[in-house]
Amino acid sequence: MTDIDKARAQREALANAAGRRTAGPSRTAQATERYLGAALYEARHGHHEKAADEQDTEQPPDAPPTTQEPPHSQTT
Fold first, then answer.
1. Which terminus of the chain has fewer Cβ atoms in its 10 Å neighbourhood, N or C?
2. Greatest extent of the chain over all pairs of C-alpha atoms, in Å
């Protein structure tokens, strides 16, 4: 049994003695895990869900394509 396992067992024994049951990680730990998971997903896949206050810069599907080329594609 490692030190971590011993600490978990001791915490659970103390919680049970106090009449409480340890069900798992705290809500803060779960929220942190979700946040880090979302950040990792975004870093791997390169996109994210748009926040409500972000403006949509994409053209609607029925809009005609623009004829102006972006500045990085112009040759000098």
1. C
2. 78
